[in-house]
């Protein structure tokens, strides 16, 4: 488990290093000029493809030992954040849409899991990038990340309690007792498949994921943001 987690973390770090290096090399040969819609679409597509890789490829996911195994960390929202901060919220939505569309043919949840991820990612990235668009400074970044994290966690808990858990129980034909036993293998503190699961699994899972997304997004965006300001 520890080796798999380490490989996943190192792979993610390597991918973002490649992203930063690619942008630096590109703009060293092609200095920024006036807005070009073709280049803009191409860059959004690039972020979308990168997001899809982080979403689809198993090596880029990480499981936490105290979280049920069906919840795995994936960091596909980071490219959406970077695109959203550079080009506006609609570009973040476009990136999220691209990675969702790419994942749909591989669904094992009748597309419900992917559409839920799409909604949560839009809430998360959309809120932060909209606030940053209105207040383009470190304070705007801090407020955006705080507000988006809070909103996304609340929405995730509500969706899991009232929609996702009932849906998966019906889809896989598992009763509450069987699902609870599976959850308790990872975290004995979970006492039911409702709000106990939400507070002891969904809440810490999303807080950890969001903290990593915030940290990596901040570092990467600070490294390349000047090279991305071409469409204002």
Automatic annotation (TrEMBL):
Segments passing through the bilayer: 6-28, 40-60, 80-98, 141-165, 197-221
InterPro entries, per database record: ECF_trnsprt_substrate-spec, RibU
Homology family: Belongs to the prokaryotic riboflavin transporter (P-RFT) (TC 2.A.87) family.
The UniProt record lists the keyword Phosphoprotein: no
Functional description taken from the UniProt entry: Probably a riboflavin-binding protein that interacts with the energy-coupling factor (ECF) ABC-transporter complex.
Organism name: Candidatus Alloenteromonas pullistercoris
Cellular-component GO terms for this entry: plasma membrane
Membrane topology label: Multi-pass membrane protein
Coiled-coil portions: none
Protein name: Riboflavin transporter
Keywords: Cell membrane, Membrane, Transmembrane, Transmembrane helix, Transport
Molecular function as annotated in GO: riboflavin transmembrane transporter activity
């Amino acid at each position: 488990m520890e080796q798999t987690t380490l490989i996943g973390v190192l792979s993610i770090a390597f991918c973002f290093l490649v992203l930063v290096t690619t942008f630096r090399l590109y703009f060293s040969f092609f200095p920024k000029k006036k807005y070009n819609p073709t280049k803009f679409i191409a860059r959004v597509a690039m972020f979308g493809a990168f997001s899809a890789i982080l979403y689809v490829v198993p090596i880029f996911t990480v499981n936490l030992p105290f979280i049920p195994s069906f919840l795995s960390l994936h960091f596909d929202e980071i490219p959406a954040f970077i695109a959203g901060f550079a080009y506006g919220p609609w570009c973040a939505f476009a990136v999220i849409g691209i990675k969702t569309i790419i994942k749909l043919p591989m669904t094992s949840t009748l597309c419900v899991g992917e559409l839920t991820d799409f909604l949560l990612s839009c809430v998360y990235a959309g809120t932060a990038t909209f606030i940053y668009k209105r207040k383009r400074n470190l304070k705007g970044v801090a407020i955006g990340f705080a507000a988006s994290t809070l909103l996304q966690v609340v929405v995730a808990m509500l969706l899991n309690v009232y929609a996702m858990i009932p849906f998966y129980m019906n889809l896989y034909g598992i009763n509450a007792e069987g699902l609870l036993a599976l959850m308790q293998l990872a975290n004995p503190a979970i006492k039911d498949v409702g709000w106990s699961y939400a507070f002891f699994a969904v809440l810490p899972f999303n807080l950890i994921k969001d903290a990593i997304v915030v940290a990596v997004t901040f570092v990467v965006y600070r490294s390349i943001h000047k090279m991305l300001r071409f469409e204002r």
